[in-house]
Design goal:
Blueprint (H helix, E strand, L loop, with lengths): L1 H9 L3 H57 L15 E4 L2 E7 L6 E6 L7 E7 L9 E7 L10 E7 L1
Antiparallel strand pairs: 1-2, 2-3, 3-4, 4-5, 5-6
């Protein structure tokens, strides 16, 4: 009987050590899974913002081509005074914000003051030698600058 109690005293801390070891392994697995979930959430949000920005850029290019090809309001030789001050497509209005010269180069920015997606459009018809017009559009996932803002651009030559 004396030998039995001596063995029991010798293994007294083993259960505590084993419990701490098992809890540590379970905790590290849980932390790994939660970190992976967090990163996947960020990636999914980034993909959504990228898609929003791309669709805005596409909308801007389509709007620009509509004003140029269908309405003919920004043909070659259009001077700053004759350029429309605003263009409206799909219920969204973009205003003329700048021009690098007095003719054939115009920049429009969508008028959004809140955190919605928006676009800007550049009409560039200054390439007289190549006979190609260029319309570029930049789409933004949010109009207000922040670290999670995503920008996508499209350019069409015709």
């Amino acid at each position: 009987m004396k030998n039995f109690f001596a063995q029991f005293k010798k293994d007294k801390g083993f259960a505590m050590l084993f419990t701490v070891l098992v809890i540590s392994v379970i905790l590290s697995i849980a932390l790994g899974i939660s970190d992976l979930t967090f990163k996947q959430t960020l990636l999914s949000n980034s993909a959504k913002n990228s898609q929003l920005a791309f669709y805005q850029a596409d909308s801007g290019v389509e709007c620009a081509m509509y004003y140029d090809l269908t309405l003919g309001q920004l043909s070659h030789g259009t001077v700053l005074a004759d350029a429309p001050q605003q263009i409206t497509c799909g219920g969204n209005t973009a205003s003329l914000v700048s021009s690098q010269s007095t003719t054939d180069y115009f920049v429009y920015q969508e008028d959004i003051a809140n955190n919605n997606p928006c676009y800007s459009i550049i009409f560039d018809k200054t390439y007289a030698t190549s006979q190609k017009d260029v319309v570029s559009s930049r789409g933004f996932s949010t109009c207000q600058a922040n670290p999670q803002q995503v920008e996508r651009g499209l350019s069409v030559s015709y």
